[in-house]
Design brief:
The strands form three sheets. Strands 6-1-9-10 form a four-stranded mixed sheet, with no helix packed on it. It has 214 residues and is α+β, with helices and mostly antiparallel strands.
Length: 214
């Protein structure tokens, strides 16, 4: 056991320095490249519950009489939902296709859709199709749109039951957000008010109002 305090403090300083150097190295030195300089990313991510496999049916009076009073309801709606089939194409080439079964013990839960793909940056034609009802032939939700994605940018694909497929990100979306000109309210002060303020001891500057010639 070391009894010389200066030596012990020196060894502790060396240990701390080595430890901090390792932390600094692994925090800054390793270079991790997720995507290349000319690449972009399309991410499909949303949760959705398929439609009911069978439509709700109205019970007859005889069927209602057979049920206990606390279980009587006019409509009988099955719990099992339809699987969700989704297909995504980029420039007419499919890059994602899946049929997701409903979750839950009774098959009445939703599904989570997630897929991520790296693409070359630039202009592309994106096509999205989905079917969420076994009672419908083909796809009952679809979107086809020309998109432009800048390098190192992410185009996120979501879905809303009322609006359908939703795209967020992309160059056009950013331009709409950043180039929007806010409304500016202009307050015109009548000359009488300016003279009144100046008469009360405040400094007033002459305001020149420009407008179309009368």
């Amino acid at each position: 056991m070391l009894t010389n305090k200066p030596v012990r403090y020196l060894l502790q300083a060396i240990n701390y320095s080595v430890f901090m150097a390792l932390i600094w190295y692994f925090a800054s030195a390793p270079s991790i490249r997720i995507i290349a300089d000319d690449e972009a990313v399309i991410t499909i991510a949303f949760s959705h519950a398929g439609q009911l496999r069978e439509p709700c049916r109205q019970l007859t009076q005889e069927e209602l009489n057979e049920l206990p009073p606390n279980m009587r309801k006019l409509d009988d709606c099955p719990r099992e939902r339809s699987p969700v089939t989704i297909e995504a194409l980029l420039d007419d080439e499919p890059f994602y296709s899946a049929t997701l079964q409903p979750t839950g013990l009774f098959g009445d839960g939703g599904v989570n859709v997630f897929h991520r793909i790296k693409i070359s940056a630039g202009e592309h034609l994106l096509s999205l199709k989905m079917n969420d009802s076994v009672r419908v032939d083909g796809f009952n939700h679809a979107l086809e749109r020309a998109v432009k994605i800048d390098p190192a940018q992410i185009l996120l694909v979501g879905f809303d039951s009322d609006e359908g497929f939703i795209l967020s990100g992309g160059r056009e979306k950013q331009a709409e957000r950043f180039n929007k000109i806010p409304e500016i309210s202009v307050l015109l002060i009548p000359p009488e008010a300016v003279r009144r303020v100046a008469g009360n001891g405040f400094r007033a500057e002459r305001v020149r109002r420009s407008g179309p010639p009368g």
